[in-house]
Amino acid sequence: MTVVTTLPDHRLLLVHAHPDDESIGTGSTMAHYAATGAHVTLVTCTLGEEGEIHVPELAQLAAAEADQLGGFRIGELAAACAALGVADHRFLGGAGRYRDSGMMGLATNEHPRAFWQADLDTAAGHLVEIMREVRPQVLITYDPNGFYGHPDHIQAHRVAMRAVELAAVEGIAPAKVYWTAMPRSVLEAGLSHFTDSSDNPFDGIESIEDLPFGTPDPEIAARIDATEHHAAKEAAMRAHGTQIPATSWLYSIAGNFGAEFMGVEYFTLAVGEKGPGSGPYGWEDDLFAGIGIGLDDDGSGRAPVSAAGVR
To answer: Which residues make up the binding site for Zn(2+) (predicted)?
Structure first.
Protein backbone atom coordinates (compact mmCIF):
# COMPACT_ATOMS: atom_id res chain seq x y z
CA MET A 1 0.00 0.00 0.00
CA THR A 2 1.30 3.47 -0.89
CA VAL A 3 0.70 5.98 1.88
CA VAL A 4 0.72 9.59 0.70
CA THR A 5 2.05 12.17 3.11
CA THR A 6 2.54 15.91 2.79
CA LEU A 7 5.75 17.77 3.46
CA PRO A 8 5.66 21.11 5.30
CA ASP A 9 4.92 24.27 3.34
CA HIS A 10 8.48 25.58 3.71
CA ARG A 11 11.20 23.38 2.22
CA LEU A 12 14.90 24.20 2.23
CA LEU A 13 17.61 22.25 0.38
CA LEU A 14 21.32 22.70 1.15
CA VAL A 15 24.15 21.34 -0.98
CA HIS A 16 27.50 21.04 0.80
CA ALA A 17 30.80 19.43 -0.19
CA HIS A 18 31.97 17.57 2.94
CA PRO A 19 30.72 16.62 6.39
CA ASP A 20 31.26 19.64 8.72
CA ASP A 21 30.72 22.25 5.96
CA GLU A 22 27.03 22.33 6.81
CA SER A 23 27.69 23.09 10.48
CA ILE A 24 30.38 25.72 10.00
CA GLY A 25 28.72 27.61 7.18
CA THR A 26 24.98 27.17 7.64
CA GLY A 27 24.42 25.39 10.96
CA SER A 28 22.41 28.13 12.62
CA THR A 29 20.27 28.68 9.55
CA MET A 30 19.52 24.95 9.38
CA ALA A 31 18.66 24.80 13.08
CA HIS A 32 16.48 27.90 12.78
CA TYR A 33 14.35 26.59 9.95
CA ALA A 34 14.15 23.08 11.37
CA ALA A 35 12.87 24.57 14.63
CA THR A 36 10.18 26.56 12.80
CA GLY A 37 8.82 23.38 11.23
CA ALA A 38 10.35 23.76 7.77
CA HIS A 39 11.53 20.64 5.97
CA VAL A 40 15.33 20.94 5.82
CA THR A 41 17.16 18.61 3.43
CA LEU A 42 20.95 18.41 3.53
CA VAL A 43 22.83 16.90 0.60
CA THR A 44 26.53 16.21 1.21
CA CYS A 45 28.56 15.47 -1.91
CA THR A 46 31.46 13.44 -0.45
CA LEU A 47 32.42 11.61 2.74
CA GLY A 48 35.38 13.90 3.38
CA GLU A 49 37.92 11.09 3.08
CA GLU A 50 40.90 13.44 2.65
CA GLY A 51 40.25 15.50 5.77
CA GLU A 52 42.99 16.23 8.30
CA ILE A 53 42.47 14.18 11.46
CA HIS A 54 42.75 16.09 14.74
CA VAL A 55 42.24 13.10 17.05
CA PRO A 56 45.61 11.31 17.43
CA GLU A 57 44.10 7.97 18.39
CA LEU A 58 42.15 7.97 15.10
CA ALA A 59 45.12 8.80 12.91
CA GLN A 60 45.09 5.32 11.38
CA LEU A 61 41.80 6.18 9.65
CA ALA A 62 43.63 8.57 7.31
CA ALA A 63 43.52 8.15 3.55
CA ALA A 64 47.21 7.23 3.49
CA GLU A 65 46.66 4.43 6.04
CA ALA A 66 43.40 2.47 6.49
CA ASP A 67 41.43 4.98 4.40
CA GLN A 68 38.42 4.65 6.69
CA LEU A 69 37.94 8.30 7.64
CA GLY A 70 34.97 8.70 5.31
CA GLY A 71 33.00 5.99 7.04
CA PHE A 72 33.79 7.49 10.44
CA ARG A 73 32.64 10.90 9.30
CA ILE A 74 29.23 9.50 8.35
CA GLY A 75 28.66 9.03 12.08
CA GLU A 76 29.95 12.51 12.88
CA LEU A 77 27.59 14.01 10.32
CA ALA A 78 24.62 12.09 11.72
CA ALA A 79 25.39 13.46 15.18
CA ALA A 80 25.75 16.99 13.82
CA CYS A 81 22.41 16.79 12.00
CA ALA A 82 20.76 15.53 15.18
CA ALA A 83 22.15 18.53 17.07
CA LEU A 84 20.70 20.84 14.41
CA GLY A 85 17.33 19.10 14.42
CA VAL A 86 17.70 18.03 10.78
CA ALA A 87 16.32 14.58 10.01
CA ASP A 88 16.60 14.54 6.20
CA HIS A 89 20.19 14.04 5.13
CA ARG A 90 21.48 12.33 1.98
CA PHE A 91 24.80 11.80 0.23
CA LEU A 92 24.77 12.80 -3.42
CA GLY A 93 24.20 9.61 -5.41
CA GLY A 94 24.52 7.58 -2.21
CA ALA A 95 27.27 7.35 0.40
CA GLY A 96 30.66 6.89 -1.25
CA ARG A 97 29.55 7.65 -4.81
CA TYR A 98 31.90 10.63 -4.92
CA ARG A 99 35.21 10.93 -3.09
CA ASP A 100 36.76 13.94 -1.38
CA SER A 101 39.12 15.49 -3.96
CA GLY A 102 41.52 17.06 -1.47
CA MET A 103 42.87 20.57 -1.85
CA MET A 104 43.32 22.12 -5.28
CA GLY A 105 46.38 20.90 -7.20
CA LEU A 106 46.94 17.70 -5.24
CA ALA A 107 47.18 14.27 -6.85
CA THR A 108 43.95 13.35 -5.07
CA ASN A 109 42.13 15.59 -7.54
CA GLU A 110 42.77 12.89 -10.14
CA HIS A 111 41.29 9.97 -8.21
CA PRO A 112 38.74 8.23 -10.49
CA ARG A 113 35.99 8.79 -7.90
CA ALA A 114 37.06 12.32 -6.97
CA PHE A 115 34.10 14.67 -6.96
CA TRP A 116 36.21 17.11 -8.95
CA GLN A 117 36.18 14.56 -11.79
CA ALA A 118 32.43 13.89 -11.64
CA ASP A 119 30.38 14.18 -14.81
CA LEU A 120 28.36 17.35 -14.26
CA ASP A 121 25.04 16.22 -15.69
CA THR A 122 25.19 12.84 -13.98
CA ALA A 123 25.90 14.41 -10.60
CA ALA A 124 23.26 17.09 -11.17
CA GLY A 125 20.81 14.36 -12.09
CA HIS A 126 21.19 12.82 -8.64
CA LEU A 127 20.27 16.18 -7.14
CA VAL A 128 17.29 16.63 -9.45
CA GLU A 129 15.92 13.32 -8.16
CA ILE A 130 15.90 14.82 -4.67
CA MET A 131 14.28 17.99 -5.97
CA ARG A 132 11.49 15.94 -7.53
CA GLU A 133 10.84 14.37 -4.16
CA VAL A 134 11.19 17.36 -1.85
CA ARG A 135 10.25 20.27 -4.16
CA PRO A 136 12.33 22.84 -2.25
CA GLN A 137 11.44 26.49 -2.69
CA VAL A 138 14.90 27.58 -1.52
CA LEU A 139 18.34 26.12 -2.22
CA ILE A 140 21.61 27.07 -0.54
CA THR A 141 25.08 26.28 -1.89
CA TYR A 142 28.42 28.05 -2.52
CA ASP A 143 29.41 30.79 -4.94
CA PRO A 144 31.38 29.98 -8.14
CA ASN A 145 34.64 29.98 -6.18
CA GLY A 146 33.25 27.53 -3.65
CA PHE A 147 33.56 30.32 -1.05
CA TYR A 148 37.32 29.81 -0.73
CA GLY A 149 38.51 27.78 -3.72
CA HIS A 150 38.32 24.14 -2.65
CA PRO A 151 37.66 21.99 -5.74
CA ASP A 152 34.80 20.09 -4.10
CA HIS A 153 33.12 23.33 -3.07
CA ILE A 154 33.46 24.66 -6.61
CA GLN A 155 32.05 21.40 -7.97
CA ALA A 156 29.18 21.48 -5.47
CA HIS A 157 28.32 24.93 -6.81
CA ARG A 158 28.45 23.70 -10.40
CA VAL A 159 26.33 20.63 -9.67
CA ALA A 160 23.74 22.58 -7.71
CA MET A 161 23.38 25.27 -10.35
CA ARG A 162 23.17 22.71 -13.17
CA ALA A 163 20.52 20.82 -11.22
CA VAL A 164 18.52 24.04 -10.92
CA GLU A 165 18.72 24.44 -14.70
CA LEU A 166 17.56 20.85 -15.28
CA ALA A 167 14.79 21.18 -12.69
CA ALA A 168 13.57 24.37 -14.36
CA VAL A 169 12.87 22.38 -17.54
CA GLU A 170 10.53 20.20 -15.48
CA GLY A 171 9.01 23.19 -13.73
CA ILE A 172 10.27 22.12 -10.29
CA ALA A 173 13.23 24.44 -9.76
CA PRO A 174 13.56 26.29 -6.44
CA ALA A 175 12.17 29.80 -6.53
CA LYS A 176 15.34 31.16 -4.90
CA VAL A 177 18.98 30.08 -4.81
CA TYR A 178 21.34 31.55 -2.24
CA TRP A 179 25.12 31.36 -1.99
CA THR A 180 26.89 31.45 1.38
CA ALA A 181 28.73 34.71 1.99
CA MET A 182 30.59 36.79 4.54
CA PRO A 183 30.20 40.60 4.49
CA ARG A 184 33.42 42.55 4.29
CA SER A 185 32.35 44.64 7.25
CA VAL A 186 32.25 41.50 9.40
CA LEU A 187 35.67 40.40 8.13
CA GLU A 188 37.13 43.83 8.81
CA ALA A 189 35.85 43.71 12.39
CA GLY A 190 37.41 40.28 12.87
CA LEU A 191 40.69 41.34 11.31
CA SER A 192 40.91 44.26 13.70
CA HIS A 193 39.89 42.28 16.78
CA PHE A 194 42.38 39.45 16.32
CA THR A 195 45.44 41.47 15.29
CA ASP A 196 47.21 40.93 18.61
CA SER A 197 45.65 37.56 19.46
CA SER A 198 47.82 34.47 19.91
CA ASP A 199 45.02 32.47 18.26
CA ASN A 200 44.65 34.69 15.21
CA PRO A 201 42.75 33.08 12.29
CA PHE A 202 43.86 36.05 10.16
CA ASP A 203 47.56 35.59 10.88
CA GLY A 204 49.60 36.95 7.98
CA ILE A 205 46.61 38.80 6.51
CA GLU A 206 47.11 42.55 6.42
CA SER A 207 44.01 43.47 4.46
CA ILE A 208 40.69 41.80 3.69
CA GLU A 209 41.72 42.12 0.05
CA ASP A 210 44.20 39.31 0.77
CA LEU A 211 41.42 36.90 1.72
CA PRO A 212 39.96 34.51 -0.89
CA PHE A 213 36.44 35.41 0.26
CA GLY A 214 34.46 38.40 1.41
CA THR A 215 31.42 40.10 -0.14
CA PRO A 216 30.77 43.85 -0.29
CA ASP A 217 27.91 44.62 2.08
CA PRO A 218 25.58 45.99 -0.65
CA GLU A 219 25.77 42.61 -2.43
CA ILE A 220 24.53 40.67 0.60
CA ALA A 221 20.86 39.74 0.18
CA ALA A 222 20.00 38.04 3.46
CA ARG A 223 21.10 38.05 7.07
CA ILE A 224 19.65 35.19 9.10
CA ASP A 225 19.71 35.97 12.79
CA ALA A 226 19.45 32.58 14.48
CA THR A 227 21.28 33.53 17.64
CA GLU A 228 18.80 31.51 19.69
CA HIS A 229 20.27 28.44 17.98
CA HIS A 230 23.96 29.25 18.42
CA ALA A 231 24.35 26.43 20.95
CA ALA A 232 22.98 23.94 18.42
CA LYS A 233 25.53 25.11 15.86
CA GLU A 234 28.38 24.77 18.34
CA ALA A 235 27.18 21.28 19.31
CA ALA A 236 27.06 20.31 15.63
CA MET A 237 30.60 21.56 15.11
CA ARG A 238 31.82 19.62 18.13
CA ALA A 239 30.25 16.50 16.63
CA HIS A 240 32.85 16.81 13.85
CA GLY A 241 35.66 16.13 16.28
CA THR A 242 38.09 14.64 13.76
CA GLN A 243 38.01 17.89 11.78
CA ILE A 244 37.44 20.65 14.33
CA PRO A 245 39.59 20.20 17.44
CA ALA A 246 38.40 21.52 20.79
CA THR A 247 41.19 24.13 20.60
CA SER A 248 39.99 25.47 17.22
CA TRP A 249 40.02 29.22 16.67
CA LEU A 250 36.35 28.86 15.76
CA TYR A 251 35.54 28.22 19.41
CA SER A 252 37.85 31.03 20.47
CA ILE A 253 35.88 33.45 18.32
CA ALA A 254 32.67 32.02 19.72
CA GLY A 255 33.95 32.73 23.21
CA ASN A 256 34.69 36.33 22.29
CA PHE A 257 31.64 37.11 20.18
CA GLY A 258 29.23 34.49 21.53
CA ALA A 259 25.83 34.11 19.91
CA GLU A 260 26.53 36.84 17.37
CA PHE A 261 29.33 34.80 15.79
CA MET A 262 27.65 31.41 16.02
CA GLY A 263 24.12 32.48 15.27
CA VAL A 264 24.22 34.96 12.38
CA GLU A 265 24.80 33.81 8.78
CA TYR A 266 24.78 35.70 5.50
CA PHE A 267 23.88 34.95 1.90
CA THR A 268 23.83 36.44 -1.58
CA LEU A 269 20.87 35.80 -3.87
CA ALA A 270 21.83 34.09 -7.15
CA VAL A 271 18.41 33.11 -8.50
CA GLY A 272 14.98 34.56 -7.81
CA GLU A 273 13.48 37.81 -6.62
CA LYS A 274 14.62 39.41 -3.40
CA GLY A 275 11.88 39.70 -0.81
CA PRO A 276 11.22 42.51 1.67
CA GLY A 277 14.19 43.44 3.83
CA SER A 278 15.44 46.06 6.23
CA GLY A 279 18.49 48.14 7.07
CA PRO A 280 20.61 50.28 4.76
CA TYR A 281 20.91 47.49 2.17
CA GLY A 282 17.50 45.90 2.54
CA TRP A 283 18.84 42.58 3.80
CA GLU A 284 16.17 39.88 4.07
CA ASP A 285 15.71 38.22 7.45
CA ASP A 286 13.88 35.23 5.95
CA LEU A 287 15.08 33.14 3.00
CA PHE A 288 11.44 32.46 2.05
CA ALA A 289 10.61 36.18 1.90
CA GLY A 290 8.55 37.04 -1.16
CA ILE A 291 7.70 33.44 -2.08
CA GLY A 292 4.05 32.41 -2.32
CA ILE A 293 3.71 29.46 0.06
CA GLY A 294 0.97 26.85 0.31
CA LEU A 295 -0.64 27.67 -3.04
CA ASP A 296 -0.58 24.43 -5.01
CA ASP A 297 1.72 21.63 -6.11
CA ASP A 298 3.64 23.41 -8.85
CA GLY A 299 6.82 23.72 -6.81
CA SER A 300 5.74 26.80 -4.87
CA GLY A 301 3.34 25.09 -2.50
CA ARG A 302 2.87 21.77 -0.77
CA ALA A 303 4.57 18.67 -2.14
CA PRO A 304 2.76 15.35 -1.72
CA VAL A 305 5.21 12.45 -1.47
CA SER A 306 4.74 8.75 -1.05
CA ALA A 307 6.08 6.80 1.91
CA ALA A 308 8.75 5.45 -0.45
CA GLY A 309 9.93 9.00 -1.08
CA VAL A 310 8.65 9.29 -4.67
CA ARG A 311 5.83 11.61 -5.72
So the answer is: 18, 21, 153
